[in-house]
């Protein structure tokens, strides 16, 4: 079968035929319908993500962790034609969090992630999957269900935010967050999914980037009644909640002292390519204002299931704007070129498997 293959940590990507010897062991056969491309995939292709590795016994890795698939051969819980999305991370099997199904909080670091480290991914015509790691999604998500993996990360981060903010009375007098302002740094797919989810919770949302928005970004931001700020114009931002999806310290550190009292900061993006420091005065401000700062990565199966429900809600609420997050669909043979470099104006590019 055809698959999109990389050889981490080497640079490069190719489409080739593979014949994986994978034991069935009660696994379900899935036909891949859509594969999403993200910064992690491109980091692996470029050789910059040095933690990526093939499975034991292989000198290559099948890429792909953002997936929409269709069941071919099921069991009593998954029937043929069911639409499914696989969970990305698989636990170490030894720490308590992994044993309890929260491998997104693995304590040992000895986990695997499909298409990223130690486990083949789903950028291939079909794959076998353990039903424990499958989430069934409704047919209404047939065109956009590939967005569930990134959205599950958003759901996890916002669940964490609500958990830590129970330290104080932070919701508004209508029980929502309508009196709170969230600033989302970055207008890529994660940034826009964060923005949609935060608007759904009632936040006033400002999407910020160091450049003007693309036409599609502006359409989405306007459509969800948020606003866009070009930070190169030095606009003052004073959020209750700051979400950084850029991974650039120079983007979020200057805003930290401006976060309102009892506020929260979610660090989501990573780059590993920049140094930018805090001053002692900045630290004093954060301490005196009770600011919570936490990093968030990956998602549990529960986050995926909650994300599926949220995606249905967002599709009903914002309709075509959700579809517009997928700005390009390409065939398998085109995929390597697009994985090497972003398409101009891209939010999310997906591969359509025939």
TrEMBL record:
BP-aspect Gene Ontology terms: non-phosphorylated glucose catabolic process; protein tetramerization
UniProt-listed Enzyme Commission number(s): 1.1.1.47
GO MF terms, alphabetically ordered: D-glucose binding; glucose 1-dehydrogenase (NAD+) activity; glucose 1-dehydrogenase (NADP+) activity; NAD+ binding; NADP+ binding; zinc ion binding
Occurrences of domain Alcohol dehydrogenase-like N-terminal (ranges): 25-138
Gene3D superfamilies per UniProt: Medium-chain alcohol dehydrogenases, catalytic domain, NAD(P)-binding Rossmann-like Domain
Key words, A-Z: Carbohydrate metabolism, Metal-binding, NAD, NADP, Nucleotide-binding, Oxidoreductase, Zinc
Domain of life: Archaea
Coiled-coil ranges (or none): none
Binding site for NADP(+): 187-190, 209-211, 268-270, 296-298, 342
Family named by the database record: Belongs to the zinc-containing alcohol dehydrogenase family. Glucose 1-dehydrogenase subfamily.
Listed name of the protein: Glucose 1-dehydrogenase
Provenance organism: Metallosphaera hakonensis JCM 8857 = DSM 7519
Gene: gdh
């Amino acid at each position: 079968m055809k698959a999109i293959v990389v050889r981490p940590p080497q640079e490069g990507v190719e489409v080739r035929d593979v014949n994986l010897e994978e034991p069935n062991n009660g696994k379900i056969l899935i036909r891949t319908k859509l594969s999403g491309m993200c910064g992690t995939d491109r980091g692996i292709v470029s050789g910059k993500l040095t933690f990526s590795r093939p499975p034991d016994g292989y000198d290559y890795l099948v890429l792909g962790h953002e997936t929409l698939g269709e069941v071919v051969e099921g069991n009593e819980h998954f029937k043929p034609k069911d639409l499914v999305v696989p969970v990305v991370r698989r636990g170490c099997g030894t720490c308590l969090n992994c044993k309890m199904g929260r491998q997104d909080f693995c304590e040992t670091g000895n986990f695997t992630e499909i298409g990223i480290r130690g486990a083949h991914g789903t950028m291939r015509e079909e794959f076998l999957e353990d039903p424990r790691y499958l989430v069934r999604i409704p047919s209404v998500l047939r065109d956009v269900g590939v967005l569930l993996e990134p959205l599950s990360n958003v759901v996890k981060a916002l669940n964490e935010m609500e958990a830590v903010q129970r330290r104080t009375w932070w919701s508004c007098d209508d029980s929502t967050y309508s009196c709170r302002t969230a600033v989302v740094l970055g207008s890529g797919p994660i940034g826009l999914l964060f923005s949609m989810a935060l608007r759904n919770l009632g936040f006033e949302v400002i999407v910020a980037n160091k450049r003007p928005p693309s036409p599609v970004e502006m359409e989405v931001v306007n459509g969800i009644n948020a606003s866009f700020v070009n930070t190169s114009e030095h606009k003052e931002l004073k959020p209750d909640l700051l979400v950084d999806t850029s991974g650039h310290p120079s983007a979020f550190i200057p805003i930290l002292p401006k976060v309102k009292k009892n506020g929260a900061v979610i660090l989501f993006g990573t780059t590993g390519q920049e140094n930018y420091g805090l001053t002692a005065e900045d630290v004093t401000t954060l301490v005196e204002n009770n600011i919570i700062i936490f990093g968030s990565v990956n998602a549990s199966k529960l986050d995926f299931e909650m994300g599926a429900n949220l995606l249905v809600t967002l599709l009903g609420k914002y309709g075509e704007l959700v579809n517009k997050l997928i700005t390009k669909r390409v065939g398998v043979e085109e995929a390597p070129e697009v994985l090497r470099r972003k398409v101009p104006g891209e939010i999310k590019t997906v591969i359509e498997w025939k």
